[in-house]
Amino acid sequence: MSMLITGIHELVTCDETLDGAVEEELHARLGLLRDAAVVIAGGGEDSAPVVEWVGPASQAPAADWAIDLEGRAVIPGFVDSHSHLVFAGDRSAEFAARMSGTPYDGGGIATTVAATRGADDAELRTLIQHRVQEMRAQGTTTVEIKSGYGLSVADEVRALRLAREVTEETTYLGAHVVPPDHRDGGEAGRAAYLDLVCGEMLEACAPHARWIDVFCEPASPYAFTGEESRRILEAGRAAGLELRVHGNQLSEGPGVQLAVELGAASVDHCTFLTDADVDALAGSDTVATLLPGVEFSTRQPYPDARRLLGAGVDVAIATDCNPGTCYSSSMPLMVALAVREMGMTPAEALRGATVVAAKALRRNDIGTIAVGRRADLAVVDAPSWLHIPYRVGVPLVRALEV
Ligand SMILES: N=CN[C@@H](CCC(=O)O)C(=O)O
Ligand SMILES: [Zn+2]
């Protein structure tokens, strides 16, 4: 079965090779067509629908079904490459304290670990499904989900198993923080937890995960040093996982350069960078994923995306949706913050939320609208994609259900 989607006033494909794309600075590298149509086909029990044809509406082929979007804009579905959706509990009071000056240091993660361990599978499943649905309703069609609020073998496996029910992009984050039960044991407790993360826990979690991640942040007493992070990432790679890193969130530190050295797909946060960090990223295949909702919700300074883009670094943006540093699932909000606060042009921010975010997940089947790629489309209830940052806070974007 095929479906013709027509009545598209602006079609953002993010396909830079597309013939006939508008060549205006405002829409640079977006592969933008006006008065366009898309044909999608396939899809069934085992396979997602794919794009079969893209072009001017006047040349569209016939299809089994047609829908008319009546002059709206269409973009590739957002790729949210960084989230922590498997959690229970509430930390809104911590947010309120930060708004009046209390700094974030990662200590609140223990609160969520306790609440998450205390929730049964059905409760957690409902929470995850609700959050994924909330994302789709705002245009997100792919989401990466980390564990990291279990921090025992059984609880980490459970988090990844539940995350796998809704996405292939699952990330083992046993190295989120050293949990309270091990911190109480001092240096020996910490060493025992590292052994667990790199040993029994990794072995149990690897079958449920594609990625391994670590909160590399020597400035936080709860997180991991550069050397500890190296050991964790190397163990993960030996177990067949691909690498991503939480780095340079609270201070300058080793995370970015470690991620580049080990060939991680992405290093996320990048709030505090030295010139050497920027240079390392610029010569690498590692994406810098910025998480502007975190700076919004922690009152930290926003990272300077312009500095990274100017050096030639690939910059993605994601929500980091989690109960501590950013409880927002809204990619449209992240696009707006990236433009308003981090020096990205609207076009750079939209690319960062789609095609560059796909690169951060080492995927080339999503993040663009092109023949043969997945038919993951989002509709903007406005004539131009520019309304996403322009009409901040207005729920204009939704995933197209096909
Ligand atoms: N920094 C580490 N992890 C999360 C926050 C987790 C939490 O505070 O619950 C982040 O990406 O910001
Ligand atoms: Zn995170």
TrEMBL record:
Cofactor field: Zn(2+); Fe(3+)
Catalyzed reaction equations: 4-imidazolone-5-propanoate + H2O = N-formimidoyl-L-glutamate
Keyword Cell inner membrane appears in the UniProt entry: no
Amino-acid positions noted as binding N-formimidoyl-L-glutamate in the UniProt annotation, renumbered to this chain: Y149, N322, G324
Top class in the EC scheme: hydrolase
Annotated Gene Ontology cellular component terms: cytoplasm
CC cofactor note: Binds 1 zinc or iron ion per subunit.
Amidohydrolase-related domain mapped to chain residues: 74-382
NCBIfam families, sorted: hutI (TIGR01224)
Function: Catalyzes the hydrolytic cleavage of the carbon-nitrogen bond in imidazolone-5-propanoate to yield N-formimidoyl-L-glutamate. It is the third step in the universal histidine degradation pathway.
Protein name: Imidazolonepropionase
